[in-house]
Amino acid sequence: AQSVTQLDSQVPVFEEAPVELRCNYSSSVSVYLFWYVQYPNQGLQLLLKYLSGSTLVKGINGFEAEFNKSQTSFHLRKPSVHISDTAEYFCAVSGSNDYKLSFGAGTTVTVRA
Amino acid sequence: DGGITQSPKYLFRKEGQNVTLSCEQNLNHDAMYWYRQDPGQGLRLIYYSQIVNDFQKGDIAEGYSVSREKKESFPLTVTSAQKNPTAFYLCASRGGVNAFFGQGTRLTVV
Fold it and tell me: Rounded to whole angstroms, how far apart are CA atoms B71 and B52?
């Protein structure tokens, strides 16, 4: 079975500053990794995903993430945040041959002017 | 438009009553999921279905039931056995790798 740990529950950040959201996973099989964003009272939108190949993955809205197999991590980064990036962010994992999709506890990002 | 529709958006239930949350998708996806979201706990998997007439328990299935009689539909029943049903419920479908989410149903027990 796979599981995900998001290491930060809340991340306050100033506008135009960089942000990093940390995610570690555990799995005994090869995995697919995802980052989703959720705005208040809405569903989730996919930011980016890692399936295989290049370990640096670029997503929408200027986000990127790096897959590190040795550290079992998939941290999300953005070099310069905007007020509109205020949201909750979820890391998720799925086995590459498994339909089960598991999420972390989420990280709330609050961007201040 | 293609997508996932959850209804209703808000639902109130009296304690001791069963209630069914609707989830419909027209994306032709095989897999569908139900998650429960509570503050600080992220999304916890209730049930998922890989194919019609088949489904598996997730991490917190107790007090819930599902059916998958049609590819497009995956309703979730919150039974009276669920001790703390007030939460935000999210349905998702998955075709291939990507999962797509509905807008959620907020259930409140009154």
Answer: 6
